[in-house]
Amino acid sequence: MDIVWSEFTQSWDSADESQAVWPISALSTEPSSELIYAGDMSGRLTTYTLFERNEPLQRHTSFLCAHTPIRQIHPFGQSHVLVRSDNTLQVRTSGGIKVFEKSTTPNEAFTASAVCERGKDAFVCTSAGAASLLNLERGSVIKRFTIGTSTVSASLEKRSGLLLTATAQGTIAYRDLRSGIDVVQSVNAFESSVGDMVQNGSFVFACGSMVDPTNAYKVIPDTCVRVFDIRKLAEPVSVLDLGEGATPIKLWSVDDTLWICHDSGYVETRFAGLANDWQEVGSGYAEPVLGEYAYASAFCAAPTGTAVLISDTEGILHVWSEDSGGDDGDIPQISTKGNVPEELIPTYSNADDEQLLGVDFDDESVSLSAVGLGPVNERLLSSLYDRRMFDVGRPINKVDASITGNLRQIDNVGYMFNPRKGRRNQQVFSRGWRAKWRDGAAAGQDDAELTMGRSKFLSQQQWRRGGSSNHGESRPESTQLGARSLASPVSSHSKSLRGADIVDLVGQLSVGKLPPKHLQRMRIEYSRFGVEDFDFSLYNSTKCSGLEGDIANSYANALLQVIFYCKELRTVVLSHCATDCPETYCLSCQLGFLFRMLETADGASCHATQLLQVLADRPEAAALALLEDENGNPSDGTSYAVLVQRLLRFVLEQANAECMALSADRDQQLESEQSQSEGEQQHKQQQQQQRIIEQIIGFTQYTNTTCPQCKGTHSRSSHVFAADLDPPQGTSGLAALLAGGSISAKRADMMRAGKRTGILELIARTFSRNETTRAWCAECRKFQLLQTEKYVTSVPQGYLALNFPIADQTFAGANATAPSAAVSATAPGASTAGSGPLSVGAGGSSNASGGNPGADPATQMTSSWQTPLPTEFCMTVSSEDASSGSVSQDNGRVQVYPAKSTDETVETESESRPCSRFKLVAIISSIRDTSRGPEHLVMHTRDPHNADGWLLFNDFLVQPVPEERVVGLNDWWRVPSIAIYANADRSQLAQAVDDIARRFPYKISTRILTSPRSVLDRPISYRRGNKGGTNTGKASRNDPKRNEAIPLTKSEAELLESGDFKCAFDAEFVVLESAKMEVFSDGTQEQHKPPVHTLARLSVVRANGGLLHGMPFIDDYVEILRPIADYASQYSGIYAGDLEKGTSPFKLSTMKEVYKKLRLLADSRCIIIGHGLKHDFRICNIVVPPAQQRDTMVLFQTSMYIRPIALRFLYWFFFQKCIQTREHSSVEDAQATLKVYESYAKSVNEDPEHSISSVLDIIYSLGSQLGWKIPED
């Protein structure tokens, strides 16, 4: 009689009731117990036991093993299991205790593993071909070797030294471990790749994939299982034909039975013993009913052969077993260790007098595990229910940031000062600690003064108000067909704290030993909705936008804001980025794109991800040590104050070279020269020799070098973008001079006299100085003490950048004083702000990253300047000709005076010279925040909307501050780095910049959409697959092909320029860096840094009607040279090689070219239709005004219906058709979004007041009934 199989139970489980069920990715069974191991896609391993038929499985243990999906589970030994995920390999007990762990790099994931029969040794290999043989008892590596190919499956027999490997290239190889890892035999088993492989005795059974006969670029599963003889690994000895349409994906061997699991979940068996019986179908089978869009994700068979386990992608675990026809309570046996022969079980004649234990204790062959418990009338305590499962353990308190800020490291050992605020090993927990830990409330209490006690997350704000939330977007009650206004999260209480109120508040917060809250490092916190849920508006109530600081190299935010608020620099780079610049990594173009975003953001938070990535890709930036390391610290260990000074020079030099084409019109210059005097013409010719960036910022400095021995003189000129101020007290001496350094005679005299230099004198010394330097003399042909004279002939016409000294010896003093004492103390003879001398604060030895770790921060007076920074000063330059080489030795060529009046001339003993007035416009400072980190940069600039006001830019925090807090330099935690002064009379410079803006206006040409070209386009003769320039007639994956886009017509381009154009937008992204998570002892996770996405494909379709309505005019694949951590092919439709030049089958474009097209659409005021536009625009690094957005995710939400509806469900609801049947296509999604929006517009036009409400009622009612899943057709 045939054995009947039936489904024993279905079960699904979640680690947390509030979370969705994760699909199971690996299954296995414990050979020594009745445990079932299940590993899911979240990295959690759970063990179950069978309970009763049609009852859920009973959870035994559950613990988190990794942050990536579990790929393979190998139970071995006594209750031990080897768990392999993408990046970790762990040995744990069945209770979750970790024995040891091995990890790999993110770019070299583990792809295969195997355990020998005795469970002592294991084999593991990575995608890069690196393999290891491990000893599971000791947790050590026995041998390391290189396979060279990506192995997907393996089988290990340590006794015979046999290692079988199956690769992604379709090869099965037999390797000998005793003679190294050499391949003894190999066979090409499948055309594409091997899917799974299992060994039974001397035979190997394998399933895999092949190339679709109808499409050479498509891979489909092979319908056969191939059998190979390991003794002669050549052609298959047999091919098991499973029938048309079969899709075998998983194989399992139990004794002489081969279990074959198909993609649909169907399981069949074949006899795996003798060759003559392979075609015979066995009695075991399973036919689980899966969901419409579900497929089998994992499979295993019990060692007894009486049960099989199948899991699907919806997280459901199906258990099928033999149907004995008896009571429904019969539970199939999983393990083989509990089997007791029937002849060994004694029988008793008097069951009433003797307890039925079921075994004979005198027989030594009987396992004690077979002893029964005897009859019981109630459930035992050891039988646990799910509701009795409790989380144990809680995370310890984090070390206070004020302690970790003073961390010092010597020889990879870190140490810090312990303030001993509590008892030894004392941990204080308050009630509700778990909720605070998960919600981030504990970490956010520090910003209560800035956020006025409001929640940082938009979702929590909406929940507390009882309203709706779409991660920051709200839908108004009006149903007008237009842009949805966003509800401002600033309450009436916070509105009152603007202008002077905030200035007063900031002044009050600034009094104290630690930096005030608004100057501390700003951190972005992440909820389960991502960074879009963070309310940046709580930190900015102005119309000026800040920049987010959770990006690599974001220390540059302060400098980028400085350049943005220099009007002339902003105008020039905007004009440059609108031109046809062919440079892919042009910094000026990226600056222009960023500045345009800041102009149109209207106070919304922005980020400079694209610009910083281009900066990181420049080899010069790495050579100059301008980049941060993997830990977010300066690569050479220097201070950020020094790093930003280097970056300023680098950015200005690059912009100067890249914008050199923006020169003035020669004909117009000649006409203007006819009406100018001779002196004006000479000055004009000098300006023409300079590039536009050199005219805007910096000055030309002349250098004369004279040798006292041979009287030889050498002269040269150079442009200085940023001048370095001397330390207030010179440190150069005779030793420095003899070592090749330089010394100022005036400074040496002042040092001997004990005098201190003022800030204005330091500025004047920057332009004119005499030094003696030991250098090589070409005439004498040996080293000499050369006299060097540096001077200028004119004052800067635009901006003057001053770099403050940051060296440790600059701020060293004799005695340590408190901050209050430092503020009130003055040096003898000190004068007031404008002309007073500079006095350095006291404090012991310090460094550029935070001072003495063991001392109180209040005593670390590392940069206490007793005189404030002058807001204005006047500068004059003597009128001697630069070519004469004569320089005044008394006062120098430059004199700097305090700005005490508005006079334009300064009287001297010999003459009356014109005076140029300079005004402080911006300053970058380093904040040594010991409570939140070692150091970060902030920027103060004048308020563009208030001439007398100042603004603070601390990443995304923007606040008005009083002027005395800007120019005051007496705080120990503040170190000035860069000060920017502007010439009050910039009329000549403004004329040159206006001329550039007139000839090169910021207007991106529509030619990039009507005649699109890319610098990556290659001539046809250089393409692979077209040898000798002749067409073979066959398509090759290496041949770039024209994408689906149809360029805009001339009439459409005119419509775009008029602002009446409409389009539908969608984009696909890939992951460059995975999210960084912190896992606590109770299994909960907290996201410290979200994944880093980048644009991979951009598609935009027409929405203006006509014959081309719905057809794409942009469909660009972006070339990405950075390593990609996850292609997310199921959701993006992007595969490995699609974004690499030379291997991609698509026509690639650079990120700059694609972004420029998107920038053109935003600047043209066209209407952009999309689904989830806020998320897409954020990753694309662009801000589009809300009036131009039509987001179908927001349109189908109200205060009653707050659930975001998937585009796939909306499209099915309106058109009864399915999209995204396989992977996502941005063109298909954009077209579907357009149709959904048109249906919405039609409903609103028919009945503006009630139609959309009735449609939403039907959608949410139907979605709730279907579980928001599309039913079967």
From TrEMBL:
Residues 545-984 form the USP domain. GO terms for cellular component: P-body; PAN complex. Gene3D superfamilies: Cysteine proteinases, Ribonuclease H-like superfamily/Ribonuclease H, YVTN repeat-like/Quinoprotein amine dehydrogenase. Pfam families: RNase_T (PF00929), UCH_1 (PF13423). InterPro entries: PAN2-PAN3_catalytic_subunit (IPR050785), PAN2_UCH_dom (IPR028881), Papain-like_cys_pep_sf (IPR038765), Quinoprotein_ADH-like_sf (IPR011047), Ribonucl_H (IPR013520), RNaseH-like_sf (IPR012337), RNaseH_sf (IPR036397), USP (IPR028889). Its EC number is 3.1.13.4. Residues 671-687, 826-837 have a biased composition (Low complexity). Keywords: Hydrolase, WD repeat. The keyword Amino-acid biosynthesis does not apply. Residues 459-492, 666-687, 826-865, 1019-1046 are annotated as: Disordered. SMART domains: EXOIII. One of its GO terms (molecular function) is nucleic acid binding. One of its GO terms (biological process) is nuclear-transcribed mRNA poly(A) tail shortening. Transmembrane segments: none annotated. The keyword Hydrolase applies. This is Poly(A)-specific ribonuclease. The gene is PAN2.
